[in-house]
Specification:
Number of helices: 11
Low-confidence stretches: 5-10, 12-16, 238-243
CATH class of one domain: Mainly Alpha
Strand content: under 5%
Largest sheet: none
Number of strands: 0
CATH superfamily of one domain: Cytochrome c-like domain
CATH topology of one domain: Cytochrome Bc1 Complex, Chain D, domain 2
CATH architecture of one domain: Orthogonal Bundle
Amino acid sequence: MTTPVIRVLVRAVLLGSIVLATAAHAAPRVEDTMAQRLLACTGCHGAQGRAASDGYYPRIAGKPAGYLFNQLLSFRDGRRQYTLMANLLAPLTDDYLREIAAHFSQLELPYPPPQAATAGIDVLTRGEALVTRGDAALHVPACTQCHGAGLMGVAPGVPALIGMPRDYLNAQLGAWRAGSRHAMAPDCMAEVAKKLAPDDISALSQWLAAQTVPAGAKPATALPAPPPLPCGGAPARGPESAR
């Protein structure tokens, strides 16, 4: 066998070895599922959307799909101001945002223990009063009138108020009060938050974050009566409209 032929054979063997080695070390195939695609969300919102440990990024797992969809729209379309979320969502269609919302809304995961309150009894008493009874003098309805008696939200568009980090609640109520967060008109939360003093917002967030989420708790399917204020992101759903 001539030397040139031997060289060709050696090169062929080496090339084959390289191809086989490359195939053996190729990256494993990643399944194309929504859970896999949305791993990017867990960097801020925690594993499976359970909420991050820093207390600022909210839990999104188990929230009503309509609420999650409305928030995604608000970030993408500029009603909520957070550059990272806006940039992530800018190229996504409404239909894809609905898929994201549906994925997280269907996750049934345990909630973390409540946060220990750092405020005194007077502050917590004020927070509980606002949540359960409202303040007629301020024309502020009780939180339970819109967010449900169990404060776990109401499908399809009202979120839970318990099981959320205190800092997040405080920041969002403050943002509505300051006019830096907006919802679909009529913006009922902005109307309520602007009637609350900073101390009231602190009392609300302290009391709410200290509440335990019962095992298996889910958003209510309807309110027993129409909500006290019209809300653009949460259509009225009293007993009649829920049928």
